[in-house]
Structures are given as C-alpha cells and as structure tokens.
Amino acid sequence: MLDLERFLPYRLSVLSNRISTDIARLYDKRHGLSIPEWRVIAVLARRPGLSATEVAQRTAMDKVAVSRAVSALLDGGRILRDTDGDDRRRSVLRLSEAGRAIYADVAPRAMAYEQRLLEALQPDERQALDRLLARMEQATGDFEHD
C-alpha cells in the first residue's frame, strides 16, 4: 500500500508548495503578483527575449498558466512584447522598467528566504542536497508511462 506521507514525489510537492506559498506572500503583498507571474518575471530577468513557450519550458509551468501570467503582466505594464528581429513571426518578452523594479525588490528577499532554509543544513548536507537534486532532475522523464 502506498504510504503517501513517505512517498517522495508527494513529499517534494508538499515542500515545494510550502516554499512557494511562503515566498508568494512576499511578492503578493508587495506587488500583487501570483506565483506564475513572479516566475515569468524571474525567468525574464535572467533571460530577456524568450517567447511565452520558452518561458513555459524553463519554468515547467503549464502553457495556459504562462499565457495568463503573461497577459496579466502585459496588462499591468510589467513586461513588454516585441517581435523577434530575426523571425518576425516570433514574439519575445522582456521586463519593462516596472518589471525590473519588482525583480530588484523581490529577488534579494527570495534569496534571503533561500538562505534561511539552507541554514538548517550543514555545508556538506547542502552540497549533497544539490548533487541529489541534480541527479533526480536528470532522472525525471526517463520512465515510460503505462
């Protein structure tokens, strides 16, 4: 019988949801952003000029969630949409000045939150966690579905 409380995918999902909710309180209260909206901002801060499809791929978010987040961010003036200079059929996204200001406010706070989480671990445990997560990330998608 499946013991859900010990089932790794469930435990990782619960932990991820708790962490996302904690950080979401920060940017929702300060900027009225949803989790998908913040993820789009965070990705575009590092990689301006991505299409919405590429944002969905990098964040592993559903295309519909990305589309809604992009629409809300465009409407709010937090991101801008341009036509790719090399491919006129392709739309690319980048942060507006308002989006860059939000990122500059939230990113250091999110990193401080991460630091507090990591302080619960010894340095060797942090390194082990990083290695283990990388191996698990590589293993995802390797299994055939029945």
Detailed description of the structure:
The protein has about 150 residues and is mostly helical. It is about 65% helix and about 5% strand. The chain has a single domain (about 10-140), classed as Orthogonal Bundle (Arc Repressor Mutant, subunit A), CATH 1.10.10.10. It has 6 helices and 2 strands. Strands 1-2 form a two-stranded antiparallel sheet. The radius of gyration is 18 Å and the shape is globular. The two termini are about 20 Å apart.
CATH superfamily: Winged helix-like DNA-binding domain superfamily/Winged helix DNA-binding domain
> From the coordinates shown, what is the CATH architecture?
Orthogonal Bundle
At CATH level 3, the topology is Arc Repressor Mutant, subunit A
Number of domains: 1
Major sheet attributes: 2 strands, antiparallel
What general outline do the C-alpha atoms trace? globular
Secondary-structure-based class equals mainly alpha
Instruction: Tell me, rounded to a whole number, the average pLDDT.
Output: 92
Strand order of the largest sheet: 1-2
What low-confidence regions span 5 or more consecutive residues with pLDDT below 50?
Answer: none
User: How many H/I helical runs?
Assistant: 6
Order of helices and strands: HHHHEEHH
Distance between the termini: 19 Å
Helix amount? 55-70%
